[in-house]
Amino acid sequence: MPIKRYKEEDEDALSIGQALYAKRYGLTLDRQLCTGCVICRLVCPREAITLKPVPKGLDGKAKPPLVDIDENKCDYHGICAVTCPFGAIKITLNDEEKMLAVEKEAYPLLLRDIQIDSERCDPNCKICEEKCPLGIISVRFEPLTPEEMEERKKKGLPDTSEKTIVDVEKKLCAACRVCEAECPAKVIRVTKFFDGSIKIDQELCPEGCQDCLDVCPVNALYLGEDGKVYAHDMFCIYCGACVNVCPRPEALELIRTSVRHTPVKSGAWNKALELLTSTSGLKREIKAKRTAKARDAVKKLKSPKGE
């Protein structure tokens, strides 16, 4: 049994923890990174996470709900931290950051795949940094050596005296693909870790309502000329922040169909996958795993002995 539990909260962070005789567990939710989406609540096996509605601001704009975590229910395995699209949750063991669920091979990591061919960036371009809705891209320029300039000429790259270095905080990347779409040189490729669809029935939307647009963290929604909100599926990360504030839920349909992740064999992950993507998503993954196993078995039968 824990010797002590604690909970501390302010506008910047929510922290909970428990102390045992030899171990100290802690969880910190960074409210500056948290977007009030629904992912952590969906996957929490202890039902320790709830969302508290927040009144609209004086400007009339909707605000995302506040995430609350029950320190008496949390087991600090970190499934919420691993699955958070925005990297807003951190788990510690004796003050050292840990992903306990991953270390115990009970849960996979989301595959954050961001490829940037910075050699081919337009000289002095910082558009990806300027357009990133999460502010996690930084671009800097450094002088090229004579050898590097010569190598660029051989490759037929843009003539410049400086090289472009693009840094991305991958742990915080939600894979919205805005940087990919905005890059003038088309040298960025981002693969989403959540696949799905989002549909808005404008006929069912309340007149003048823009609540979903107000809280979307990645600019996946936009206002049409008719004053109604529309979705840009390419940018949507299917986090559910919009669903949380929609006053007429039947007007907005968001579905996650699959999750790109590292290999895992776990009933805990199967349950989380079902909650994230519905039963059909779980069935697809199980079928894909069975197909892969059958393919490997056939390969082994066909291969010479000893290989």
Polypeptide structure, described:
The protein has 307 residues and is an alpha+beta fold. It has four domains: 4-103, Alpha-Beta Plaits (2-Layer Sandwich), CATH 3.30.70; 113-191, Alpha-Beta Plaits (2-Layer Sandwich), CATH 3.30.70.3270; 194-259, Alpha-Beta Plaits (2-Layer Sandwich), CATH 3.30.70; 265-307. It contains nine helices and 15 strands. A hairpin with a 3-residue loop joins strand 1 and strand 2 (13-19). The protein starts with a strand and ends in a 5-residue tail after the last helix.
Concise account of the structure shown:
The chain is α+β, with helices and mostly antiparallel strands and 307 residues long. The mean pLDDT is 91.
Global structural class: alpha+beta
Radius of gyration: 23 Å
- CATH architectural designation of the largest domain: 2-Layer Sandwich
CATH class of the largest domain: Alpha Beta
Count, helices: 9
User: Which shape, going by the Cα principal axes?
Assistant: globular
